[in-house]
Each structure stands twice: as structure tokens, then as C-alpha cells.
Amino acid sequence: MFGLAIYRGYIGTYSKGDSKGIYTFTLDTNTKEITDLKLAAELKDATYVTISDDNQFLYAVMKEGDAGGIQSFSINAQTGALEPINKEITADGGPCHIIVDKAGKRALSANYHSGMIHAFALNNDGSIAKTVASAQHKGSGPNAERQEKAHAHFAGFTPDERYIVAVDLGTDEVVLYTLDGENLAKHFTFNATPGSGPRHIAFHPTEPYAYIMTELSNEVIVCAFDAIPGTLKEIQVVSTLPEGYEDLSQGSAIHVSRDGKFVYVGNRGHNSITSFRVNEHSGELSLVEFVSTEGNWPRDFRLDPTESIVVASNQESGDLTVYSRNKDTGKLSLHKANISVPYPVCVAFLSTPL
Questions:
Q1: pLDDT of 125 higher than 90
Q2: According to the model, what pLDDT value does residue 180 have?
Q3: Both ends of the chain: CA-CA distance in Å?
Q4: Which residues pair with 239 in a beta bridge?
Q5: What 3-state class would DSSP assign to 324?
Q6: What start and end residues bound the annotated signal peptide (predicted)?
Q7: pTM score, whole prediction
Q8: How big is the CA angle at 126 (ends 122 and 127), to the nearest 5 degrees?
Q9: Which of 54, 116, 271, 276 is the most exposed place for a label (fewest CB within 10 A)?
């Protein structure tokens, strides 16, 4: 299914400097070269994008004045162009994360500044029907500068989509919700180490494990995930930084390979991607390597659909870095750096080749 071919990707960016919105590119998985890099759609602070499973629609977070929300687009895979469909504005500013369920019927967003998550209903034509439900996080953490209040940084689904999962950097919590009609009901709360600042979560594709990336402590919290009752239990905490490293660094993205053998995380400040091998019996992680992102502040990275290539986005240096990935060892080898994109934040791919 994922043979050598050309795939289309999209990049969400901050609206700073020369950045205009969402950019697109093509990736040749044979040559590992990125080409046809261009603006796909103008949109203010489209810092996170997600693509429907059928590759027909792209959804992006956005800002509009002091408010914000999400914007839907139809995708022209051949040209990369994005045609606006509609938007849904919420009163609490621009969100930082968005995801769509497998059926393309629901979208979720997380808002860092307000500490809220929102659930949206989607129509078959890709349009956003309405905001269905919202939940306001409350609380704080010991880091007075970063945890003065709730800061929701991720909203997604558990693998079976039974529960909605929200990660809050400000309250050191991962909260599981049920969505019943127009009510987001809190189901379970996992409490991370105070001050760790959890940012994102990724689930193992086949085994009952979840991996929480912390921003403030630069760690991965490995959890046993019991899907039916919907609970998380900590089983391991591992640093994503080299021993003895004491300079500024903040954890960013986390992704699990499709075969479940490796976990990859980003470190902003240390400016690296850390690779871990997954113990198939326990889910615990062991270090494989640290690899430089050859740029400044890697906000995100993504395994391409073949998972033989990784593309990292360096926000502050304004560039992409491309690696070859060894599927047996999990190691990354630098292919090309300094591919210019203004303030890149998020990388996403269409799952089918052109």
C-alpha cells in the first residue's frame, strides 16, 4: 500500500515574517526530495492542520481578530490547492491543536490560552456544521510562569474513539471525556508529575500503551491504557534529553511508528529528535539515539506514509529537515536540511500517493 511514490504534504505556520498561511509540497520517497513547495491557502496563524482519512478535506486552526476557531478546506491533491469551505469561530481565541475522527464526522480542538476544548460536528461535504460541546479546564501548576492557569494543548480520541482525550500543560493533567449529545462529561483524569507540563499524547497502534510527551520536563510518560474502562496508569518516565544537558529545552511532538516498534519525540532548544525502541512485552522505552534537527525550535515532525522518511519543521530558523529512516533500527540519517519555509509549525501528509 505504501510503496515508493510521490506524496503530498502540508505545513501549518505562524503568521509572522513572510508567512502567509498553509503551505504545500510534494515528497518523492525514492529520491527523498521535497519539491513544488508553495502557498496553498492564506490563513492567519494556521499553526496546526489535520487531514480527513479519505484525503478529501483539510482542517486548520486559525485566528480572526481576537477570536479564532477552525477552517475547513477541500483538497486538490494534484495541485495542492486548498479551497475554503467554511469556518467555525469560538469566542476564546485561536486554538493550537485540531484532529478529525476516522469517519470524518467530528473534529476536536484545544485552546492553549483559554484552557478549553471544543467538539464540532462535520458534514459529508467537509463543512463544519456547528460547535457541539465544549469543556473548560480549571486549575494550575507549580510553574508560576507557564502554569498560572489551565492550558489545553491537545485534543484527540482514544484508538477506538470511545473517549475524547485532552492534554493540559497548565494543570499537569490528561483528561478523558465522553461525548453524550451536546455534553462533554469528564470520565477519568490522569495526574502527571506536578510541573512536568504534559503537551501531547500518542497511543500504541496495537498494544494497550500510551505515551505522553511533557513540554516543561522534556520527558515521555509511558502509561498502560485500559481501553474499556478508559484509564491510564503510569509505568515508566524517561528523559528525552542527553544526561547532563541543562540548557533550555521544551518537549514538542511525539509520534509512534505504525509497526509500534519505535517512539519519536521532538526537543525544542536541544533542537533534536529522540528515538526510542518499544519493549514489545512491557511497552517501556529504551533510548536509540538523539539526532540534530539542523535548525532551531523543532515544533513538529512527521513520518511520511511509507515511514521511510521523516520531515521535521524548525519554527524559528524557518526550515524543514528531511531524514531517511531505518525501519529495523529506528535510526534517522540526515538527507537534506535548510529547506526554507517561514515559521513552520506542523507537518501533515495525504495518505495516498499522487
A1: yes
A2: 87
A3: 13
A4: 219
A5: strand
A6: none
A7: 0.97
A8: 65
A9: 54
Smallest CA-to-CA distance from 213 within 173, 254, 172 is with 254
Residue 8 has pLDDT above 60, yes or no: yes
What band does 3 get if pLDDT is binned at 50, 70 and 90? Answer: low
Nearest alpha-carbon partner for 266 in 332, 170, 340: 332
Residues 6+ apart with CB under 8 A from 345: 11, 12, 13, 14, 47, 48, 299, 300, 313, 315
> Backbone phi, then psi, for 181, in 5-degree steps?
65, -110
CA-CA distance, 85 to 102, in Å (whole number)? 20
For cell 531524514, the residue is 323
Do residues 342 and 317 touch, judged by C-beta distance below 8 A?
A: no
Write the pLDDT tens digit of every residue in 46-75: 999 999 999 999 999 999 988 999 999 999
Read off the amino acid at residue 184: L
The DSSP call for residue 216 is S
Q: Which fold does the domain 6-194+226-234+306-349 belong to in CATH?
A: Methylamine Dehydrogenase; Chain H (2.130.10)
What are the backbone angles phi and psi of residue 17, rounded to the nearest 5°? 60, -130
d(CA 222, CA 240): 12
Nine-digit cell string for 259: 509497526
Q: How far apart are CA 151 and CA 341, in angstroms?
A: 28
Asked if 166 and 199 count as a contact pair (C-beta separation under 8 A), the reply is no
pLDDT > 70? residue 237: yes
Instruction: Kindly indicate the confidence band of residue 4, based on its pLDDT and cuts at 50, 70 and 90.
Output: confident
Phi-psi region of 318 (alpha: psi -120 to 50; beta: other; left: phi over 0): left
Mean pLDDT of the chain: 98
Name the residue with cell 460541546. 133
Mean pLDDT of 221-230: 98
Q: Are 181 and 164 in contact (CB under 8 A)?
A: no
Query: How far is Cα 229 from Cα 163, in angstroms, rounded to an integer?
Result: 10
Q: Do 351 and 55 contact (CB within 8 A), yes or no?
A: yes
